Amino acid sequence: MKVAFGSASKRRLSRALLGVSVAVAILSLPGCATYSASFAKVESAAANRDLKEAIKSLDELKLSGPDELLHHLNKGTLLSLQGDYAESNRHFDAAKSLMETLNAISVTEQAASVISNDTVKAYEGLPSEQLMIYSFEALNYLQLGNIDDAAVEARQFDVKQGLIAEKNKGANYLSGAFVRYLNGMVYEAAGERGDAVIEMRKALEGYKAQDSDFPVPQKLREDMARLAAGKPAVSEVVLILHNGLGASVDENNIRVANPFYDPRKTGDIAMLSLAVPKFVKRSLPVDHVVLSSGANSATSEVVEDVNGIAEKSFNDRMPAIIARGALRMVAKNVAAQEAKKRMQDNPYAVLLNVVTDVATNVSERADTRSWSLLPGNIQMARLALPEGRHDLTATYYGSYGNIVGVREFKGVELKSGRKVFVSDYYLNPPAAPKAAN
């Protein structure tokens, strides 16, 4: 049976469909709910130590606009792991500059995020991530043998950490203890023993304040005792291990009652969807590393619980995230109710109401972005050796005492009373692809 439409009916239907189409377009702005999943290819290549392919995969993601900071942070990390320290620092410098810009406009962007979802905000990094960038840059300079620029990073960090601590009062985990420990060694290497003592004392206080799951590093205590006694530094190799990957962020959808629900209204929706991010820790492949050269060896200490600090930083932001989500949910629902009122005389009102409700819920996305290539924790092994060239072996042990990997560093040159910094990373092998059904 054919149904004939008059010109007036056609115009009403056309206007109604156009209105719904515009609503859907506005409410369904693209989000980043699959951001963590999109990084799987990058992480898989890095785990296989194919850093060239990891960088290629990262570039193919074309992170720009609100995701530009993530491009610089992750690109800088991969370049550092690849040994391209100067280019790595170029990206980290760009990231720091962008962070400062974003901090200045974040209030405006947060207002915009209430209208659509948090993914429209430019990613500015967790406070813990904003501190961690300084350790990456300093370590890059140390591996380039550029002590002076590493000392500049140390001074910049002191200012930045003070600002973050002021903005996040009571967040003792943002002490930056590990970065200060590293900076203390930088100051001593630069001949600034007074600053080294101050920085290491702040590191000690920071470790105690952040209440970590690991003790204050023993080597830090030894450094402080040696500096207090006026004894010179010894020749040693310092290995920094980036162990595993930091947490990923998933989306968690919460169903909440619609405060405007009216059971007397046809097509009204009783429940609304609020999307919030969920912090998901990943396992760490290395329990400890033993750095050796001949009969000499040193066992690593955990110096930074990146996962734990990031989780605390993440949890502190959750109340604001939920508050924005609740405001956004109310604003969208009010807009949907107004749209329904305008369509109530339309013969297709029930269908159009359903489409409006679907658009309102589909547009709600959680922000699952993070500095994906941060390690789960950072370990440090310090091996004192005589002046000269040395071949080093780093043996990585799993939690059951089994050897999970071995790395070699050939011809590392040590000068009297100086430190040489080397770094490595170890990731869990990527999961095997699922068999096709």
Topology:
Blueprint: H1 7-27, H2 35-38, H3 40-47, H4 51-60, H5 68-82, H6 85-115, H7 127-143, H8 147-167, H9 177-189, H10 193-209, H11 218-228, E1 236-243, E2 248-257, E3 271-280, E4 288-293, E5 296-299, E6 301-304, H12 306-343, H13 349-362, E7 377-384, E8 388-397, E9 403-414, E10 419-426
Parallel strand pairs: 1-10
Antiparallel strand pairs: 1-7, 2-3, 4-5, 4-8, 6-7, 8-9
Helix pairs in contact: 1-13, 3-4, 4-5, 5-6, 6-7, 6-12, 7-8, 7-9, 8-9, 9-10, 10-11, 12-13
Strand content: 15-25%
The helix-strand sequence is HHHHHHHHHHHEEEEEEHHEEEE
Low-confidence stretches: 1-5, 16-33, 348-352, 432-437
Helix-residue proportion:
40-55%
Number of helices: 13
Rg over alpha carbons: 27 Å
* Average pLDDT: 83
What general form does the structure show? elongated
Measured between the Cα atoms of the first and last residue, the distance is: 44 Å
User: What is the number of strand segments?
Assistant: 10
Oligomer: single chain
Characterization of this structure:
Strand 4 and strand 5 form a beta hairpin. The strands form three sheets. The protein has a four-stranded mixed sheet with strand order 6-7-1-10. Strands 5-4-8-9 form a four-stranded antiparallel sheet, with no helix packed on it. Strands 2-3 form a two-stranded antiparallel sheet. The longest helix is centred in the C-terminal third of the chain and has 38 residues, at 306-343. The chain has 437 residues and is of the alpha+beta class. Mean pLDDT is 83; it is low at 1-5, 16-33, 348-352 and 432-437. Helix 1 runs parallel beside helix 13 (349-362) and helix 4 (51-60) packs antiparallel against helix 5 (68-82). The protein has helices at 7-27, 35-38, 40-47, 51-60, 68-82, 85-115, 127-143, 147-167, 177-189, 193-209, 218-228, 306-343, 349-362; strands at 236-243, 248-257, 271-280, 288-293, 296-299, 301-304, 377-384, 388-397, 403-414, 419-426.
